[in-house]
Amino acid sequence: MIRVQQEDFDPGAELEQLHGKLRAGAGAVVSFTGLVRDLNEGADVTGMTLEHYPGMTEKALAAIATEATSRWKLIDAVIIHRVGPLEPNDRIVLVIAASAHRRDAFQACEFMIDTLKTKAPFWKKETTSQGSRWVTTNR
Amino acid sequence: MIQLHYFASLRERLGISDESISLPDDVDTIAGLQQWLQERGEPWSGALADERLLVAVNHELAKHSSGVRDGDEIAWFPPVTGG
């Protein structure tokens, strides 16, 4: 399940909803939640805006979930990513992998967030005390 | 016609986010299209010379050698920074 949205998401509610769809056989659910940090490259970050490429973004995220599902034995995969204005400590991204066993779930979850950071068309523009700037390195 | 899109810092540098153009007769690759755009002069010539830029054809990441056909949607953008 892929979602790109401006509003916040509730990781607990998303995990609960996924859990409700699982059947016996699922043994592990691993989730990753990414947050806005208040410090980047030595500057205080007071906020940021996330731009994306509507249409391509959804396809790129779906392709990442599909690739994870083909490389590991996943029962379900979820990627939710926010766009628009965000503040420090806001949630940006949620990735969930459900599998029969924890190893597949851990590895698939890490693969999805790592791949998202290099393949999905999102761009961060930070507001700092020294003005606004596009983020150019993604760690 | 082909649809062109520009994002993030590239969009700001060019001053536009998208445009529609007729595919030039002698252009059939991304590299050729990029050269054609750069020949329009600044800010295109400088902005599109950035070798870190990524390009997508019809929502899929593409290479400079990738083909371009009438009706395609092509986007240039800086390295992505989501997550």
Note the main attributes of this structure.
heterodimer, A: 139 residues, alpha+beta, Aldehyde Oxidoreductase, domain 3, five-stranded antiparallel beta sheet, four-stranded mixed beta sheet, 3 helices, 32% helix, B: 83 residues, Ubiquitin-like (UB roll), five-stranded mixed beta sheet, 5 strands, 24% helix, globular
β-sheet strand percentage of chain B: 25-35%
Beta-strand content bin of chain A: 35-45%
User: How are the strands of the biggest sheet of chain B laid out side by side?
Assistant: 2-1-5-3-4
Q: What is the straight-line distance between the termini of chain B? A: 34 Å
Number of strands of chain A: 9
How helix-rich are the residues of chain A, as a percent range?
Answer: 25-40%
- The CATH homologous superfamily of chain B is called Beta-grasp domain
At the first level of CATH, the class of chain A is Alpha Beta
Mean of residue pLDDT of chain B? 97
Task: Tell me the CATH topology of chain A.
Answer: Aldehyde Oxidoreductase, domain 3
Helix content of chain B: 10-25%
CATH topology of chain B: Ubiquitin-like (UB roll)
Integer-rounded radius of gyration of chain A: 16 Å
Order of helices and strands of chain A: EHEEEHEEEHEE
Approximate shape of chain B: globular
Structure description:
The complex is a heterodimer of chains A (139) and B (83). Chain A is 32% helix and 40% strand. The longest helix of chain A is centred in the last third of the chain and has 18 residues. Chain A has one domain: Aldehyde Oxidoreductase, domain 3 (Alpha-Beta Complex), CATH 3.90.1170.40. Chain A is of the alpha+beta class and 139 residues long. Chain A is elongated and about 55 Å long. Chain B has a single domain, classed as Roll (Ubiquitin-like (UB roll)). Chain B has a five-stranded mixed beta sheet. In chain B, a hairpin with a 2-residue loop joins β3 and β4. Chain B is globular. At the A-B interface, β4, α2, α3 and β8 of A face loops of B.
